[in-house]
Amino acid sequence: MGRPDFEQFVGESLPALMRHAHALTGDVHAGEDLVQDTLVRMADVWRRIDREGNPLGFARTVMLRLYLRGWHARRRRPTMQPLVETAAAGDAYETVDVRESLRLGLAQLPRLQRAVLVLGYLDDLADEDISVLLGRRPATIRSLRARGLRVLRDRLSADITDLEVSRDTH
Amino acid sequence: MTRIEDLLREQLRSGDAPAGPGRDVMLARVGRVRRRRMAAAGAGFAAILAAVVAVGLSVMRPGPSGTQFGSDVPPRVYTADLVNAVFTDARHGYVVQESCSTDVITDVPDDAPTPDVHRRCAGQLLATADAGQTWQARALPGDPAVKDAAVDLVPGHSLMLWVDGTGRLALGGYDLRYWTTTDGGATWQESATPRDTGPAGSLATFTIDDRLTFLGPPPDGVPLKKSQPSPAAATDGSFWTACAAGPCVRVTRDHGATWQRKSVGDGAASVDWVASYNGHTVYAAVRTDTHAQLVRSTDGGATWSHVLDLEQPSANGLVLPDGDLILVEASDTGDMSRLASGATQLHELADAPAHPSVLYLSGGVVVAAPASDAGDGPELASLASVSTDGGTTWIAVPPPPA
Question: Most B CBs within 10 Å: which of A36, A153, A155, as the mutation test of the B interface?
């Protein structure tokens, strides 16, 4: 079976790349822009990527670098901010509110903290692997992860008053 | 495993990731960007061709170990970032940039040990004494802090290169170290005390003359809008920022002790940016429910009037000392235009760099930059461009060395 051409790669990997970009940026349109910029760079060197294999790994690395190194969405469209409402205790929409609180909490985080959480909880990478990928010490990664989780925990505690949010850490 | 981690994992993996554009739409977008980029590069094609040929010949030549590029040399990602540009007057300028190269991990078997990822970074200081016509590399006393710097950093316009209270050029490093120079960067003296990071909760930013100052944050808890990451400083000591939500701007005239909220008028839904040079004449790019507009106040923000409708929302704006305004279009092309003081018609700045994400004034010189660049080869594009004539002509600052 031959190697996929660039068009085939885009078709097959677009959902995965969109999920990754959306997790990093927290915004649909910014995620699209990030995927687009990643693919533009890949298209430039596709023959080499194709020769060396693992284009999806290459794409994720390029995307992460772009995101962490000052990348900005092109802001073609106005940013829509959803209404934020607090649910009554124990109501049927509590799960929805938890998700919304988490989304807003993630949006508050600095890029590096957010990247650490995405790599850890979307890609299931260990702190040591993340430290290699980001060029930071494992202790720094643990610190970034703990700070990010603390922000999310505080956000949830404030928004969802009766939700049990454990403060245990491991 | 804690509850918060379970919730986060569930959130990130939930099925509500956006479908996004389909394959054909995304390919069309990628193709459009590449065609536009190739067209922009057309003018310099001969020079690039010569460089490519030279690089190609050098990398195809076997190295000391007999290897060739593309065989067993690991692929790398190259990035370049502008830290800041400071002009102490119209002729003397300083630019700090950083370039990094990082291994790209490809094709690691599941049972293989995690490979080492090598990352190399180098900072660079360039100085000009002829308004950017020529640049000389100067030795940096230490690496400029580009992260974890104890103050908020804005890519391309970071508080790591500034003018200190006595007028000396200062460079900030890690662990709050900083150095100053009185001879244009030829020699540096390290400060005996750590750099000032201001009162807790304060907002560090530049004054109009590139000095560091600390403002009290606006009272709404969301001090700065993403589309305007730094307050705009004016010569009267005021600082301006777009409201994070709603059709208003905020101004402080007492270093953030109090912030006044100024509505930009009926019909607007939000403000993308606000800019002023003297604190009296103020421009704002606003959005209504249907389109984008430019509005102006000539009484310090008390009242506003419509100037013109914009074909595209504006990403950035800068008021020049003569009262003219430079705007950057928030579009794929990121075109730059100039509005003469009091005029209602834009004039495109044909020679301006495309798509700058930062635009600011330093020592009367306009600085525009995409803030960063990345690619799979060490030859990255120039980051910063400077203009000494209000945006009519531009000079590209040399990119940082690979």
Answer: A36
Report the candidate in A46, A68, A71 with the shortest Cα–Cα distance to residue B373.
A71
- The domain tally of chain B equals 2
Domains present along chain A, CATH in parentheses: 6-68 (1.10.1740), 94-159 (1.10.10.10)
Does residue B10 form part of some domain?
A: no
As beta bridge partners, residue B125 has: B96, B138
Q: Give residues 98 to 157 of A whose Cβ lies within 8 Å of B.
A: 98-99, 102-103, 106, 112, 117-118, 121-122, 128-129, 132-133, 135, 149, 152-153, 156
Strand order in the sheet with B358-362: B358-362, B365-369, B385-387, B395-396
A88 Cα to chain B: minimum distance (Å): 20
Nearest CA in chain A to B1: A170
pTM of the model: 0.59
Same domain, residue pair B83 and B227: yes
Give per-residue pLDDT as tens, B290-332.
889 999 999 999 999 999 999 888 989 999 999 999 999 887 6
pLDDT tens string B50-67: 333 333 333 333 333 333
Contacts (Cβ under 8 Å, ≥6 apart) of A23: A118, A122, B12, B17
Q: CATH no. for residue B359?
A: 2.130.10
Q: Check if the interface score ipTM surpasses 0.90.
A: no
Which residue does chain A place closest to B225, by CA atoms?
A79
From chain A, pick out residues whose CB is under 8 angstroms from the CB of B115.
132
**How far is B117 from chain A, CA to nearest CA, in Å?**
6
